Amino acid sequence: MKKTARQIVFEDLSDEPKGWDWTRWVATLHPPDRWHVEGKGNRGDWTIDYRLTALDDERTELAIRGRRRPTAIGPANPRKAGLERDMGVMWKTYGRVLERDPRRRPRRRR
Fold first, then answer.
1. 3-state secondary structure of 53
2. C-alpha dist (Å) from residue 102 to 60, 80, 95, 97, 99
3. What is the DSSP letter of 109?
4. Pick from 94, 95, 64: which is nearest to 80 by CA?
5. Span 26-85, pLDDT tens digits
6. Range of the domain at 25
7. I need a labelling partner for 28 at 20 to 30 A (CA). Which of 9, 50, 64, 100 fits?
8. 60: in domain
9. Is residue 73 part of a domain?
10. pTM more than 0.70
11. Reduced to 3 states, what is the DSSP secondary structure of residue 51?
12. What is the pLDDT of residues 84-104, one digit of tens each?
């Protein structure tokens, strides 16, 4: 919906078993290593902070801290273990996609 140097705004709409799930997300970027996301939707409001930390051997750690406030019509907060599992799967999948991205591979000189 909107993208600037410091902010990205987008909406997510999905068909879930119990009805539609809609959220409007506003991500505020704090280069080079963190970003803050606020999400407001029909099943709850989210606040999520992301931080990248450089590790040895050219690796990077991603730390995620979040909180969800359910709305009157939405379901209860998910259990911590389930949310951590779901977020871990999502970010591991995203990491594999980035690693396979051909644009990220160094070009060979001829």
1. strand
2. 20, 35, 13, 10, 8
3. P
4. 64
5. 999 999 999 999 999 887 888 999 999 999 888 888 888 888 777 666 566 667 777 778
6. 2-101
7. 100
8. yes
9. yes
10. no
11. strand
12. 787 788 778 877 887 776 665
